[in-house]
Design a protein that fits this description.
Elements lengths: L2 H5 L2 E3 L3 H8 L3 E5 L1 H7 L8 E4 L5 H9 L7 E6 L1 H14 L3 E5 L12 E5 L2 E5 L6 E4 L1 H4 L4 H5 L3 H18 L8 H23 L2 H21 L7 H13 L5 H16 L3 H11 L12 H18 L13 H14 L3
Parallel strand pairs: 1-8, 2-3, 2-4, 4-5, 5-8
Antiparallel strand pairs: 6-7
Length: 339
């Protein structure tokens, strides 16, 4: 059995979500109205329903406290917020976890930590792996296409994440370079570029590719740590959310940030442009509520934020993040997302 199948057991079959939800008993469902409406008519009634609208720490703690005694399993059904809510509750209550992504926009089904917000700051905590992940292409493809194309974000981030890691390692800062992790990251990027037309079409093959590749990356993060797929592109997203208190589709925001930071790094920004265009992920700055002035402010705040939050060393410490550089990066990102 492969590492990824041992760490994140994956059922990837059409109709699998319907079958599993019908068989469950005494379960807690963490979801939102939209995905729940797609399955509730054929699903077994849950013991407890959690509307996973907020991942603020206080709201997660309250939701976990309200789970009744007698619950036997926690099910996450939906996107990142639902899956992270399920992780928090399962860990807090000592219950097994089943994850059923209804969109494939993020890697949350295949990560052991959960993401939460403390005010407007993104935090990560916990260490809980699901007993099963059920990725049902029939269910996933019923979501708006853009939400599934957004699944490229946490894969494309390998492009900038690995650059930051190598830069820091060569300077003797942070974790030492691991060539096995880099081989994985390069393979993910090559496969992503090859799969771009299927992702853009949100075909059955495209959905399967995103699910399996997120599974592989999730296992790689446990085996090697997340440095190969998380770097300054995620840090830009964190600063954006901190400054604006806006919560955009994660994979779309990360894709935009990869465009920006690959230019700042001088790291083959044309490749990031090809992937964004080829997959049709919506990384348009206007779609994300970002203009030139806001990007200037984000990059100006970035060094202090990274130092304060003790984020991985990256190009942020080496680059001169001037307003001129921000404007040039914004122009690249804007041009990349024009069709």
């Amino acid at each position: 059995m492969s590492l990824e199948d041992r760490l994140f057991p994956l059922t990837l079959e059409n109709g699998a979500a319907t079958v599993r939800l019908a068989d469950l008993r005494d379960h807690v469902v963490c979801t939102m109205a939209e995905p729940w409406a797609l399955v509730k008519d054929t699903a077994a009634p849950p013991l407890h329903y959690v509307e996973a609208r907020s991942v603020e720490l206080a709201d997660l703690q309250r939701a976990a406290a309200e789970v009744p005694d007698g619950a036997k399993v926690v099910v996450g059904l939906g996107g990142g917020s639902s899956l992270d809510t399920a992780k928090f509750i399962a860990e807090a209550r000592g219950l097994p976890l089943i994850q059923i992504p209804s969109i494939i926009s993020v890697d949350a089904a295949f990560t052991a930590p959960y993401g939460y917000r403390d005010g407007s700051r993104v935090r990560y905590a916990g260490d809980l792996r699901p007993v099963e992940v059920i990725a049902d292409p029939d269910l996933i493809r019923r979501a708006p296409p853009g939400l599934n194309r957004a699944g490229v974000g946490d894969l494309l981030s390998c492009h900038t994440g690995m650059f930051d890691w190598k830069l820091a390692s060569d300077a003797g800062r942070g974790e030492p370079w691991n060539e096995e992790a880099a081989v994985l990251g390069r393979r993910v990027l090559d496969d992503l570029e090859a799969a771009a037309p299927e992702i853009a079409a949100v075909s059955d093959e495209g959905v399967r590719f995103l699910a399996r590749t997120h599974q592989v990356v999730g296992a790689g993060c446990i085996e090697y740590g997340p440095r190969f797929e998380e770097g300054s592109e995620h840090f830009v997203a964190y600063v954006y959310e901190w400054l604006t208190n806006e919560h955009r589709v994660h994979g779309e925001l990360i894709s935009f940030c990869v465009l920006v930071m690959s230019f700042v790094q001088g790291n083959d920004p044309d490749r990031a442009v090809r992937v964004v265009r080829g997959t049709k992920v919506d990384a348009r700055p206007e779609h994300l509520g970002i203009d030139e002035t806001l990007l200037e402010r984000i990059l100006a705040e970035l060094p202090t934020y990274c130092e304060r939050e003790q984020l991985f060393p990256s190009v942020v410490e080496a680059a001169d993040l001037t307003p001129k550089l921000a404007r040039e990066a914004f122009a690249v990102a804007t041009g990349a997302t024009r069709t």
